[in-house]
Amino acid sequence: MASERGDRGGFNRAPREMTDVTCSECGKQTQVPFKPDGSRPVYCQECYQKHRPARSSSRY
Ligand SMILES: [Zn+2]
Question: What pTM does this model have?
């Protein structure tokens, strides 16, 4: 089964490293929690949601 992590506490410590990017769709400045390698477009949150497959799954 899935390995359990020992994450405890509700505080967001160790924030992710955000990278400033420009949305490939609308050109808006945004940040992404990963380092874009330039081989794929990056989107702001709004456009990202548009681009994700909207399946009728209740899972996130
Ligand atoms: Zn956008």
Answer: 0.57
